[in-house]
Design brief:
The complex is a heterodimer of chains A (259) and B (288).
Chain A lengths: L2 E10 L2 E11 L4 E5 L6 H9 L6 E6 L2 E2 L5 H4 L1 E4 L11 H10 L9 H14 L15 H14 L4 E5 L7 H18 L2 E6 L2 H7 L2 E6 L2 E6 L1 H6 L4 H13 L1 H7 L8
Helix pairs in contact in A: 3-4, 3-5, 4-5
Chain B lengths: L17 H30 L4 H9 L1 H34 L5 H13 L2 H12 L6 H6 L8 H12 L1 H14 L2 H8 L4 H30 L2 H7 L9 H10 L3 H28 L1 H9 L1
Helix pairs in contact in B: 1-13, 2-13, 3-7, 3-8, 3-10, 5-7, 5-11, 7-10, 7-11, 8-10, 9-10, 10-13, 12-13
The chains are: A alpha/beta (259), B mainly alpha (288).
């Protein structure tokens, strides 16, 4: 077992976001954190990325005391919901960022960085777009730049926050399979947050279902379908299948400035 | 779309009646000419009334030169310090949550709401001969009031909000996402600031610096209280203008005043030029 999370808890202004979450996941697995909004899934992801601090609990990853490492030393590639691309940099500069900010001695030579950027651009199928600015790209293209940027640092762990949340239904489906493909190719332990049960069930090796700061169930999609551990799980899987929240989200984008 | 003929021309929902439009635009134009353009022209016209050589003589006489020099020194110290403080305040306010944040925002605005004369008086009360620290300063032979340090302090107080006011809304709007991304990619705090935060705010920062500088060089009230009006020593340009005017040396007064007016025009020109030159980049940073 490679990723071990032990009773991680976190509060925001007395409102408990996570009430002692524990689970284990094998190295190289593709794990989905699934739950309604406010269930704590994004908080858990941000704790794994070092962007938020747990109040108690511990996380071990590949035998490293994970929470003791500062965010910048974890080499956890984080893909943000709104991509958070550096808007004043070209696509190539965005991807190269993680390599260029390394200290002297750890920084690869310029030619090597250029080569890596080209390689990643072709991995995410954006050859020739290296000189564009993020504002000149479509949502799906930005998403892929964000992923390439996270992969550039050769991450130990890949963390994705609602990776397809801001995309329309068609692009979403395409990128889903493509993301799974990239995961299988690189073998990096990947955790992604989603509120879309269809997405989680289709993509992930393991699905953890969160509700009000606790994990209701964790297992393979088949296990969860066969034997939902609680009424909430059964309900959540069922109701979201009917409502198809992905279609609702795709037409209603509250942060349209980023669209 | 528009080739279908309509029997009448529909007016857009937000369009005013043509008469109202002309009246509004006309009123605005008259106002601009009367209150902004005319005074500016008057300053230059009065300065050049006795010919350009008289104006140049007024600017190059020793007391005027000393005033220009003092203004440049005071602004040269006050502006960089205010840029540093303004940047740190905006950074703290926009990127972090902490207790007393709204109090800090109010505090940043304080110099805007306090009369400059009061700000000047505060320094006299603290550092002046009769002030709290007066005896101590006198014993150690440190001069603050009626000297350069007092002028710099008063200028800094009055011009403090310019940089912060420009940056806080901009940085709040941009959020923390990009900084978080930089951190997760392994950048240190300093590198994140230099490579991500600073480039994103550079236009706002530049504008803040220009405004701050224009005000620093033009400040009258607060500096007037702490300066002591010693000709050739503690007179800044605005104070020098007042002295000349009170001496009925109108041409000289307006000549120095036109220098200050020129500074304002240059500030505006530089800002407009930069906005025009880097329009694409500014749009990219703001839209995204």
């Amino acid at each position: 077992m490679s990723l071990v999370v032990e009773s991680v808890a976190k509060r925001f202004d007395r409102f408990p976001a996570l009430k002692g979450v524990s689970f284990t996941a094998p190295k190289g697995c593709f794990l989905a954190l699934l739950g309604p909004s406010g269930s704590g899934k994004t908080t858990l992801l941000r704790i794994l990325g070092g962007l938020e601090f747990a109040e108690s609990g511990r996380v071990k990853f590949e035998d490293i005391e994970w929470l003791a490492l500062p965010a910048r030393e974890r080499r956890a590639g984080f893909v943000f919901q709104q991509y958070a691309l550096f808007r004043h940099m070209t696509v190539a500069k965005n991807i190269a960022f993680g390599l260029e900010v390394r200290g002297r001695g750890h920084r690869p030579p310029r030619a090597e960085i250029t080569r890596r950027v080209e390689e990643l651009l072709s991995l995410v199928q954006l050859e020739g777009l290296g000189t564009r600015y993020p504002s000149q790209l479509s949502g799906g293209q930005r998403q892929r730049v964000a992923l390439a940027r996270a992969l550039a640092i050769e991450p130990r762990m890949l963390l994705l926050d609602e990776p397809f949340g801001a995309l329309d239904a068609k692009v979403r489906k395409e990128l889903r399979h493509w993301l799974r493909h990239i995961h299988d190719k690189t073998g990096i332990t990947t955790v992604f947050v989603t509120h879309d049960q269809e997405e989680a069930m289709e993509l992930a090796d393991l699905v953890a279902i969160l509700n009000q700061g606790t994990i209701e169930q964790i297992g393979t999609p088949a296990e969860i379908r066969r034997a939902p551990a609680s009424e909430f799980v059964a309900d959540f899987i069922d109701s979201t299948a009917d409502v198809r929240p992905n279609l609702v989200i795709a037409t209603f984008e509250p942060r349209s400035a980023h669209a | 779309m528009s080739d279908i003929a309509l029997p009448f021309r529909p007016r857009g929902a937000t369009q005013e009646h043509p008469v109202a439009r002309v009246a509004l635009v006309g009123a605005a134009a008259v106002f601009v000419v009367l209150f902004l353009l005319l005074p500016l022209i008057t300053v230059f016209a009065e300065a050049l009334k006795d010919g350009i050589s008289a104006a140049i003589a007024a600017i190059t006489e020793p007391d005027a030169l000393s005033a220009i020099k003092l203004t440049l020194i005071a602004a040269g110290i006050a502006v960089p310090l205010n840029v540093t403080f303004g940047l740190s305040a905006s950074w703290a306010i926009s990127k972090f949550d902490f207790r007393g944040k709204s109090f800090l925002v109010t505090l940043v605005d304080l110099p805007f709401s306090v009369s400059p004369v009061v700000s000047g008086l505060v320094y006299v009360l603290i550092f002046g001969m009769q002030g709290w620290l007066g005896p101590y300063l006198r014993d150690h032979d440190i001069k603050i009031i009626f000297a350069l340090p007092g002028i710099v302090l008063a200028t800094m107080f009055v011009t403090f909000p310019f940089v912060a006011r420009e940056l806080i809304p901009l940085m709040t709007d941009q959020g923390r996402d990009e900084e978080e991304a930089a951190t997760s990619l392994g950048a240190s705090g300093w590198k994140t600031f230099c490579r991500v935060t600073l480039p994103n705010i550079k236009w706002g920062l530049l504008y803040g610096v220009l405004l701050c500088n224009a005000r620093a060089m033009g400040e009258f009230g607060a500096v007037s209280v702490v300066s002591g009006h010693i000709r050739g020593q503690t007179n800044t340009m605005p104070l020098h203008v007042e002295v000349l005017y009170n001496d009925y040396q109108f041409v000289a007064a307006f000549a120095v005043a036109s220098l200050l007016a020129l500074l304002a025009l240059v500030t505006l020109a530089v800002k407009t030029f930069l906005e025009w030159r880097y329009a694409d980049e500014i749009a990219a940073v703001h839209k995204h």
